[in-house]
Amino acid sequence: MQIRTQRLSLRPLERADAAPIGALAGDFDVARMTGMIPHPYGERDALAWIERANQGDEGVVFAVARERALIGCSGYMPMDADHAEIGYWFGKPYWGAGFATEAVRAVVAHAFDAHGFAYVRAGHFVDNPRSRRVLDKLGFSPDGEEMRDCAARGEQVPCLTYRLDRERAAAALRQP
């Protein structure tokens, strides 16, 4: 399965993605904003994750590439028949260029189309305002706050949660 957006290609993970994933996700500034990427994190860790993802153990995961270069990953984990949790990370050199918004918009649309979910959820740590802007642009509404594990920090961190219902998504996802 491959998805194309205006500037990006979202495709299945490949073993060759291990080196760029290890380099980009291995940056502490990236890993600390995710729940599951430990630090340090390298190519071997990325390869093991790719193998789990390709077996379906990590939900639906896309490598996000721009001009064939991997810049991040995004996907979702079905939680039940009604909803999924969206996740994403992008390498630090690609922050602030709108790539996360563009890719996550496509992933959310795919989740609704492919699975018929009633809603999707997402979250970000309280010290990650960039992620909040992504979710705001896509029409997500605040849904609460909870403590979530952060492997890179080795502790639980306050996480703001958001929800996007199918009806609201239809209008929000059409915008560029």
From TrEMBL:
SUPFAM superfamilies found in the cross-reference section: Acyl-CoA N-acyltransferases (Nat)
InterPro entries per the record? Acyl_CoA_acyltransferase (IPR016181), GNAT_dom (IPR000182), N-acetyltransferase (IPR051531)
* UniProt keywords, alphabetically: Acyltransferase, Transferase
Q: Which residues form the N-acetyltransferase domain?
A: 8-167
Q: Which GO terms describe its molecular function?
A: acyltransferase activity, transferring groups other than amino-acyl groups
Among PROSITE patterns, the record links this protein to: GNAT (PS51186)
| Annotated family | Belongs to the acetyltransferase family. RimJ subfamily.
**Protein name, per record:** N-acetyltransferase domain-containing protein
Origin organism is Methyloceanibacter methanicus
